[in-house]
Design goal:
Elements: E1 18-31, E2 34-41, E3 44-51, H1 56-62, E4 70-79, E5 92-103, H2 120-125, H3 127-130, H4 134-156, E6 160-161, E7 179-181, E8 189-191, H5 197-205, E9 210-218, E10 230-239, H6 243-262, E11 272-274, H7 275-282, E12 296-297, H8 299-302, H9 308-311, E13 315-321, H10 329-339, E14 350-354, E15 360-362, H11 370-380, E16 387-393, H12 395-412, E17 423-427, E18 432-435, E19 440-443, H13 458-461, E20 470-475, E21 478-485, H14 490-499, H15 504-517, E22 525-531, H16 532-539, H17 570-576
Parallel strand pairs: 3-5, 6-9, 11-17
Antiparallel strand pairs: 1-2, 1-4, 2-3, 4-5, 7-8, 9-10, 10-22, 12-13, 13-16, 14-15, 14-16, 17-20, 18-19, 20-21, 21-22
Helix pairs in contact: 4-6, 4-16, 14-15
Length: 584
Amino acid sequence: MYRSHSCGELRIEHQGQVVVLAGWVQRVREMGGMTFVDVRDRYGITQLAFNNQQNEGLNKAARQLGREFVIQVKGTVIERTSKNKQLPTGDIEIEVNELQVLNAAKTPPFTIENDTDGGDELRMQYRYLDIRRNVIQDKLRLRNKVALETRKYLDSLNFMDVETPYLIKSTPEGARDFVVPSRMNQGEFYALPQSPQTFKQLLMVAGIDRYYQIVKCFRDEDLRSDRQPEFTQIDCEMAFVDQEDILNTFEGLIKHLFKACRGVEFEGEFPRMTYSEAMEKYGSDKPDIRFGMEFHNMNALTKDKGFKIFDEAESVIAIVAEGCAAYTRKQIDALVDWVKRPQIGASGMVYLKYNEDGTLKSSVDKFYSTDDLKEWTNYTEAKPGDLLLILSGTTEKVRKQMNELRLHLGDELGLRNPNVFKPLWVLDFPLLEWDEDSNRYHAMHHPFTSPKAEDFNLLASDPTAVRANAYDLAMNGVELGGGSIRIHDKKIQAQMFELLGFSEEQAQEQFGFLMNAFEYGAPPHGGIAFGLDRLVATMGGADSIRDFIAFPKNNAGRDVMINAPSSIDEEQLNELGIAVNTKV
């Protein structure tokens, strides 16, 4: 037996017991004739005490221990003289009478502590060391808890966990696929699934009326803090349901997870907002509603006053930063520089200070009278002490720019508390969007999303006006999940493929298996998928999903720990019938 107890288990009531512990050396402290060693495992830390008077040789051996040595000790639990209230084990220590070094360790490249001195790339290179830190283990524990509670909750509602294949057919739409060459079928390729979408719909046809899976998915797309090439979904589908059934069922899941895993209870139903309203108010389909700063369309108040920038703009949009009229010129210039960065792309920014004494000061005073500016404050309901910030341009661009500015100010003003959670259902997305480059429609969600019943008649006459029977759950500016009611009628699915530019032959080649299945009695069905990585990161109050994944990849899609991706030898390539073109 390597250990009788964990390093986080012992308390004052264990005093007098002889115990065996095993773990990693956190630190060694020499104090006169005594040596204290902190030994750590995933459950906690226990202090070990060595004393020259009791065993000089053992005390000398303890002083030879280095950080991260793996040791085993046997000793007696005694009460600590100097207690540590920061540790659950802080009332006791182990008076050691036996010490064995199970494995010596090199000095680690960074400190294995919560506030480490290791940078991101270094920690990812030695991820197995990084995971020893409590802050990372806490994140993985949260992930484990969320997955466990998800399974318990869905099982209680008669959902069945069904695995679907990882080696599937490459299909268009969505992000780029990761492809896998087939040795037995040379010249042909599998694709790794971006989601189990078609399979879960086939399971509905098969009579599995409540399906779920915590499943790995793959997308070859540009990476960022909340995106990895391989990610995990809580993937769900239900038959004989409408949109309201889906929203109620999975709102219940999210409420359960937050209560069970974070001790957070939501009162009442989650608020709902249409896609159109979200874009008009926040310029985002996943708005952060922890704070205000809603958009105000200023077109009617700013046009035809001789200010060319506003006169020629498709949209002029303002937000009110409460209490920020005291911003100095330097602070305002910093905001102007921020919105002019290439990532944001604004050409400039107009401001209006509504000072505490009621006076108005704007960067466009010479174009607008005091009465004009007063109309701005009345329209936006600004109060003395507030600051109006205004951007202009084409509607789509200026909404995106103002959304970024709004979030930036939210951070700057401390309005985005990571321990406050504000969910929001976003509904009625457009079914289709027109892509100028390819000169055709693309599905806003995916090709299997059903139009809203009341918009069916617009499919032929005005496709861009058709609303999707789709929904997303946003929280704190993050899209946690999304889904839709699916098309279950072969004729409507064929019409959808036609709108997306598929010929009948192409649709049959790519999705014939699904359309053929619809001929054998497909029930009305719909579903949703939550990003498990994003969900646990949001619950953990983090912007990045990376530390909530045991072995993540960097922003170049590389695993720097195992050096993947890597080249393969010529023999493997020949076996697969593949030649690599390094000039592309």
